[in-house]
Amino acid sequence: MCCTGLQNLLQGLSFSAKYYSKHNLTQTMCPYNKIGPKKFHILDSSKSTCTRWTALPGSILPCRLFSWKKEKMVPSKRNQNTSIVTSDLLHKNLLKSEQKNWNNFLPTYKAMTKKIKEKLEELHNMYTPNSGSPRMRFGENVYFEENGCIFLAKADHGKGNAEILFSVEDYGFSDAFIQRIRISPDQRYMAISLKSENSEEATCIVMKLGNLPVVEKVIPCVFSFEWAANDVLYYTTLKNLKCQNVFMTTFTYQKHTKLVYTEQDARFFVDLYCTKDRRFLTINSNSKTTSEVWLVDCRHPFESPALVQARTTGVIYHIEHRKDQLYILTTYGEPAEYKAILTDNYIHRINLYTYGKENWQLVYALEKKTKLVDFEMFSDDCIMFMKNAGHLYLNVISFVSHSVQSIKLPTWACEFELESHPEHTTSTCYFQLSSPVHPPKRFAYSFKENNLIEQAVQEVPIITNCHTTRLLAKSKDETLVPITVFHNKNSKELHRRPLLVHVYGAYGIDLNMSFKEEKLMLIEEGWILAYCHVRGGGEQGLSWHRDGCQHNKLKGVHDLRACIMLLHQLGFSQPKHTALAAASAGGVLAGALCNTDPALIRAMVLQAPFVDVLNTMMKTHLPLTIEEREEWGNPLEDEKCMKYIKSYCPYQNIKPQYYPSVFITAYDNDERIPLTGILQYVQKLRKAALDHASRTSKKGNWIPNIILHVQANGSHCDSSWEHSLNE
């Protein structure tokens, strides 16, 4: 297919995108690999991460709106049409009003905005060029991506002699960003997904490599894809934020595409993964709490998938393979945390019906309150990345010596990113460590030497003036809640310094603590940064999440209150200098605290916040509401659940009282957090604050600024460096 033909086809699919640079984001729509959300580089997927995802692979988070209970009278079609027109008109009027308010507000901070932008650009230019692009090695060949181009180089020749295989600009889409790349085992084909910043759907382009790479196929609305054989590609499709169909397509001889698997349960989301040794392609069907895996034998890719273990409510499992044995990471058994399991039979052919959980043997179990962040299988070793009380470390399991070695990582490290290792026989595992104020550093673990090596990189300014402190706050029920605090070592009188508190606490997802230029800027300006690892998140394992979801959601609010109070008690700022920041589902806890304890903070910053849980969870026609019941409950069928959600829901509990100033960012194209709910929340909050001010006649009465910025571009998940800079 020629360049013009591809361009016309993609334009026909209404595909437009913005290039996503190497700037780090919030927590993206991310194709899950095995555990939790990865911030994929191009060799695995988008580097961004979405804030309303579960810790389970492939789960996807819901849009939000309002619905009546089932027993309500169904209005006539005429009344329904009238209601829709009225609702649309109200939405447009509210949006117009907020846009006018924003335009009036913006000039006030023009000078400050200019100063901040210049500083952030300086920091971005200082650190980003040194972070490098992840490299995928196949024998003597190395593949990597830079600035919207995919390159091929010889391993020993460096980047100087690299050959360009694909460029988004050459195909007429300079605004597109490359989300994921998969190279076929014989390196004859390359599959790429291109994604838009304004949509969650991606388009897969399959290219035949050679002296002159050519486009073989364009597949719209693709979520994940993997090569099962040299010319056989499996892929999943995304529709209405649901991923339930798996297809197989071939590229030589009798070219054809066929449906391989369909998930019937709306709570489940399907994605694909290849085992490290490429023996099996796994079809993973996951809900928030339960999973099921089907295997495709890559030696026989046209045969039907085989089921490993039928889904069992509450049991999650993931599959790896090594030397004719399945290794299973699962929550099966007590305690319900991840364990490494070995099947007790050998695989000679794809006949796996004896590999149910009754034949599983325990190999390794996690310690209490430990989070398994990710794991990677190699020919003779397995490496596990763990988190306990905020500290990162790794465990190396040797299949040769049958030993486990635990290695502590630097105390400043808060996030890690595993680099792609397509060759499972490699003797070295590469990964990057970072924190909100420490740019990524590359490390290597050598299996031969049994040691950790910090990789030499270009000259990068070393962050030496930032102090990291880890605290434990005692919550209402005496549970100890971890807090990570950063501040400038040279700061005096910390109780007078401004404090920015971060919270999330949902879906078993950890707070995003990857490097951000704006965080480093705040530290240099004398701010204190605090990250509250409250229940509902995943920082201390699956039980930490379970203890903060559904009928336990208020525990997250209690945890957040305890964290902020401890920070003030220890001399980290004070209420009048404290701001609270949250994104997406983190808006539930932040908004709830704003209602119950507004005097603890002076300002609140919310990005695409989820603020009306009750009305949202009653909207059953939304594509993702059903699967969200495992996180929030089902108020339509459970009156106790309805009352409980109503007791903490931010929108439902707004009342005339003191409120801090609030700044909210929302996106017009957000498929997960519809704009209407945010508009109504802002209107109600502003009215309550003004009512309170009018009822009190104190001199100098506090009237908060409540500002909403609605962005026409951007979506819930992806954010380019330029977009993030402007925000």
TrEMBL record:
This protein's UniProt keywords: Cytoplasm, Hydrolase, Protease, Serine protease
Gene Ontology MF terms: serine-type endopeptidase activity
Enzyme Commission number(s): 3.4.21.-
Domain Peptidase S9A N-terminal: 95-451
Pfam families to which the protein is assigned, alphabetical: Peptidase_S9 (PF00326), Peptidase_S9_N (PF02897)
All residue ranges annotated as the Peptidase S9 prolyl oligopeptidase catalytic domain in the record: 514-692
Membrane-crossing residue ranges in chain numbering: none
Domain of life: Eukaryota
PANTHER family: PROLYL ENDOPEPTIDASE-LIKE (PTHR11757:SF19), PROTEASE FAMILY S9A OLIGOPEPTIDASE (PTHR11757)
Role played: Serine peptidase whose precise substrate specificity remains unclear. Does not cleave peptides after a arginine or lysine residue. Regulates trans-Golgi network morphology and sorting by regulating the membrane binding of the AP-1 complex. May play a role in the regulation of synaptic vesicle exocytosis.
Family: Belongs to the peptidase S9A family.
Protein's name according to its UniProt entry: Prolyl endopeptidase
Source organism of the structure: Anthoscopus minutus
Taxonomic path: Eukaryota, Metazoa, Chordata, Craniata, Vertebrata
Gene this protein is translated from: Prepl
